[in-house]
Specification:
The structure holds 2 protein chains of 2 kinds. By secondary structure, chain A is mostly beta strands. Chain A contains no helices and 11 strands. In chain B, strands 2, 4, 5, 6, 9, 10 and 11 form a 7-stranded mixed sheet that branches. The chains are: A mainly beta, B mainly beta.
Chain lengths: 111, 115
């Protein structure tokens, strides 16, 4: 079983749609959780951290359910510029900042 | 100003050759990383250095040898290149003791093609 699992997509949605991505992780001792965004042929960039209480950044809302080992990302009012691959990321417990990446979910927003 | 830079951006070489990729960060971070992203876009950590000390060494062939001459630089040398080494290699950096957030900043990647 992969340490971080995501639906690869692609999710094809029209502008203005709301879209949700899910992610599960296998290590119950994982400590930190993130969503990174990767544009085609570019480097990954941090989109947002994910906190236990849930957090929002503009049109983006992230949720964490530690009991179910489940992370979600909700994008409201999708823009063409949201088209990218969204990477679910967890860090291992103890020691240094080792990021474990999911394979990513591809989002394509069309006019 | 580029925060994390890598050279070269593209590298095409033949099997059996030895090549190096260089990485530099000007963020003042104390931890640097090498990641490999294969053809299926799966991003996986290879190595990490904290203050020039190797702290993460994943299951990577001995042909891959990282070197960190100082906190701001982390190079990757690859001996006897194989077809399966073709991938995009990303360098990243972070500040290890910045609490829970510990964002990693990635370089633009080096696209290695082995023929």
């Amino acid at each position: 079983r992969k340490e971080v699992e995501q639906d690869p997509g692609p999710f094809n949605v029209p502008e203005g749609a709301t879209v949700a991505f899910n992610c599960t992780y296998s290590n119950s001792a994982s400590q930190s959780f993130f969503w990174y965004r990767q544009d085609c042929r570019k480097e990954p960039k941090l989109l947002m951290s994910v906190y236990s209480s849930g957090n929002e950044d503009g049109r983006f809302t992230a949720q964490l359910n530690r009991a179910s080992q489940y992370i979600s990302l909700l994008i409201r009012d999708s823009k063409l510029s949201d088209s990218a691959t969204y990477l679910c990321v967890v860090t291992t417990s103890g020691g240094y900042n080792k990021l474990i990446f999911g394979a990513g979910t591809r989002l394509a927003v069309h006019p | 100003d580029t925060a994390v830079s890598q050279t070269p951006k593209y590298l095409v070489t033949q099997m059996g050759n030895d090549k190096s990729i260089k990485c530099e960060q000007n963020l003042g971070h104390d931890t640097m990383y090498w990641y490999k992203q294969d053809s299926k876009k799966f991003l996986k950590i290879m190595f990490s250095y904290n203050n020039k000390e190797l702290i993460i060494n994943e299951t990577v062939p001995n042909r891959f040898s990282p070197k960190s001459p100082d906190k701001a630089h982390l190079n990757l040398h690859i001996n006897s290149l194989e077809l399966g080494d073709s991938a995009v290699y990303f360098c990243a950096s972070s500040q290890a003791d910045r609490g829970d957030r510990r964002e990693q900043y990635f370089g633009p990647g080096t696209r290695l093609t082995v023929t």
